[in-house]
Design goal:
The protein has a single domain, classed as Rossmann fold. It is 33% helix and 20% strand. The chain contains seven helices and eight strands, in the order E-H-E-H-E-E-H-E-H-E-H-H-E-H-E. It is globular and about 50 Å long.
């Protein structure tokens, strides 16, 4: 049961809940008998949602990421040190070629998913962060959005949403952090953040 008209949504901001909201929307769409594809960028298939989402009929989940975080060399490396070897540092404008290639493979999958009519809802998880770290261009994501069938709903998640994409979107929600236990040293917890 496809949408009569599909819209473009963005979930962004520095607060928790962007991916979680997208997953909630996926569950709702699946419950309505729709087909959903979730493409996770910058993530490895180690998060708890991978164990359950792939079991739902009508759900396709793909990841295009690596098991580490990335930071620019001009960002606060002291904060990043807590991740030990789970980070890669590069100069702004010079991302690792293998990561760029991996992301571009995901963008090709995304373009097919929004344009071929197989899916009613397509979620591009962490795509905003991909753009922030210059692993892809805004124009590439605009091209994906322009190629979408009229009845396909698209959700883009991640911090640092690009202003061009915000203007293109039909719905933009900003998750704002007011308070987080992370500030007291509590790292991500299985089943909540991962």
């Amino acid at each position: 049961m496809p949408f009569e008209k599909g819209y473009t949504q963005i979930y962004t901001g520095n607060g928790k809940g962007k991916t979680t909201s997208a997953i909630g929307l996926a569950i709702r769409a699946l419950g309505a008998g729709m087909k959903v594809m979730m493409i996770q960028f910058m993530k490895d298939p180690v998060y708890s949602e991978h164990k359950i989402l792939s079991q739902f009929e009508g759900m396709t989940l793909k990841t295009f990421g690596k098991p580490f975080f990335i930071v620019y060399d001009d960002e606060n490396l002291e904060k990043a040190k807590k991740w030990e070897r789970k980070i890669v540092v590069f100069k702004k404008g010079n991302p690792p070629k293998d990561y760029v290639e991996l992301i571009h493979n995901g963008l090709q999958v995304a373009k097919r998913a929004v344009s071929n009519g197989e899916y009613d809802l397509v979620i591009l998880d962490e795509i905003n962060v991909v753009l922030y770290y210059e692993l892809a261009s805004v124009e590439e994501v605009e091209d994906i959005l322009k190629s979408k069938k009229d009845n396909v709903e698209v959700v883009l998640t991640g911090r640092y949403a690009n202003e061009k994409l915000i203007k293109l979107a039909d719905l933009v929600t900003e998750m704002k952090e007011i308070k987080h236990y992370y500030q007291q040293g509590v790292m991500s917890r299985k089943g909540i953040e991962e």
